[in-house]
Amino acid sequence: MDVSTLNAKQAAKAVSLFNAKYFEMEQALYCLSKHCRGDLLKGNSSGVVEALVWTIKSWWGVQGVRFETKALAAQALSKMIWIQDHFEETSNIHPNAEEFAYERVSELVSAMVNLGVSRQEFSLSSKILHCLSPWQIPVYDSFVRKSIGIPTTWNHHEAYLKIIHWQFSAIGKLSEEGVIWTGDIVPKSPLRALDKYMWWLGGGSEGKAVVVREPWKIINQLGIVPS
Description:
Elements: H1 8-34, H2 37-41, H3 47-59, H4 69-79, H5 97-115, H6 122-132, H7 142-148, H8 156-175, H9 190-201, H10 217-221
Helix pairs in contact: 1-9, 3-4, 3-6, 4-5, 5-6, 5-8
């Protein structure tokens, strides 16, 4: 997929259709993400952080992730340096945005392996960090690799660097068209909207993905009061 073929009006329509179908799931997941911030800022691995890891794995269909990864990923997240800026909305793409995204995801992948995770979980790591920092971290998975045309011979590090560059370039192109295409539900992040747009183009419009029937169940079980 070439960046030049992307269209802001088409993106806006795809994001709107996605949001209409998955509104409750998106809001519940973002609520869970926001309630992880306090623990991460304090360096704590908590049940809420573990719940975020496993909800992302389950809802976003990350294949091959072993159950013990739930706790290990939460521990790895708690060992990373977190500041409030990592969670804040940003309207500009910073000059070091690509480097920051790559280093953050690579750090989480390495920390998980060091704690005992048996493989490099690039997809899961990118999706967790995307959920926590939706204005800063692009999603990495096999669908994105295929859509962008990344050879299967490339390793995860090479592929993610390419994905990061492509996604930030795509955001720049779409934003130049002067159309509001990021949707009307939080997080109104260009990277989150781009992921929805690419998913819709790649077959999401066919309606095959599962809609979670009780997305707020995990929020209620944790005793979280939505804000």
